[in-house]
Amino acid sequence: MRGWIVPPPKAPTKTATDYARERERKVRGLESRGLLKSPRIKAALLKVPREEFIPRDYRDYAYCEVPLPLPGAAATISCPHSYPLFYEPLGLDRGHRFLEVGTGSGYGAAVAREVVGDEGLVVSIELDALTYDFAKRNLQRAGYSNILLVLGDGGLGYPAAAPYDRIAITAACPRIPAPLIEQLTTGGRAIAPLLEDDRQVLTLITKQPEGVRRETICDVLYVALRGEYGTEAPATAFPPDDAMAAD
Ligand SMILES: C[S@@+](CC[C@H](N)C(=O)[O-])C[C@H]1O[C@@H](n2cnc3c(N)ncnc32)[C@H](O)[C@@H]1O
To answer: Under a CB-based contact definition with an 8 Å cutoff, are residues 191 and 203 in contact?
Structure first.
C-alpha cells in the first residue's frame, strides 16, 4: 500500500481536444496493462468526459493516475484505472441493476450507466451533502438524468430499488455491510476495499444459495466508509495522509 501525492491546484489550460486525446490514450493504456477487457466498459470509458466530474482547479489532471479532491469532508474522484479495476471483476454488463456506495464526483455512476444501458438501473448513494450536490450538478451537466442519486448512508443500501445484480462500495470498510448482501440477487456480485489489519484488500464476493464466496484481488487505498457500517474514525478534511484510490 502507498500514499498519493495530490498535484497542486491550478487554472485549467487544456482544450476539449486535449482531453479527448488523453482519454483515448488512457483507455489504450488500461487495455495494454490487461486491466480493461470488456468492450462495454471500454466504450463507456471512451464516452464519459471524466474532466466534467473534476473541480475546475484540478481538471488538467483528469487523466493522471491520482485521486483528486472533491467538495465534501473526505471525498475524491478515484484514479482512472480504479473503474475497470472494480467493474471488470464485477462483470458489470448490459441490463444489470447496479448500486454504487460513495457517489463522489458522479463519474463512476456515469460510466456504470453507459455500461448497463437503458435496460439496466444505476442507483448511487452519497453520505456527504456537499459531495452529493457536486455529483448531482456534474451528472446534470453531462446529460445523465437516468441515475437515481440518493443522499444517505450507503451501508444501509437502498431497499426501495433492490435487488441489485452488482454492488460497488468505493470506500474502505471492515466487511461488506449485511444490508447490501441482503439486497444482492442470488448469483449477484459485490466489490469493496476491505480492511485487514493495516491493509485494504479489494475483495469480490458472489452471493450463492449456500453462502457467500469471496475472492481477493489486490491491495488498494481508499477513504474510509462512514456511517453505521463504517469505521469509527471521524471524517478528515482532504488531503488526509491516506488519500485514497486503487494502487
Ligand atoms: C473514493 S470516493 C468515491 C469516488 C466515486 N465513486 C467517483 O467516481 O467519483 C468515496 C466516497 O464515499 C463516500 N462515503 C463514505 N462513507 C459513505 C457512506 N456510508 N455512504 C455513502 N457514501 C459514503 C465519501 O463521501 C466519498 O464521496
So the answer is: yes
Domain residue extents for the chain? 16-246
Mean pLDDT to the nearest integer, 227-236: 69
What is the Å distance from ligand 1's center to 149 Cα?
12
Q: Which CATH superfamily is domain 16-246 in?
A: Vaccinia Virus protein VP39 (3.40.50.150)
Task: Give, in degrees to the nearest 5, the angle at Cα 107 between 105 and 111.
Answer: 160
pLDDT band, residue 184 (cuts 50/70/90): very high
Structure-block grid coordinates of residue 70 = 472533491
Q: If we measure between CA atoms, which residue out of 141, 53, 62 comes closest to residue 104?
A: 53
Q: What's the gap in Å between 112 CA and the centre of ligand 1?
A: 15
Catalytic annotation, residues: 78
Cell 474514525 sits on residue = 233
Residue owning the nearest CA to atom 15 of ligand 1: 225
pLDDT mean over 222-228: 96
> Which pLDDT does position 2 carry in this prediction?
47
Q: How far apart are CA 91 and CA 54, in angstroms?
A: 26
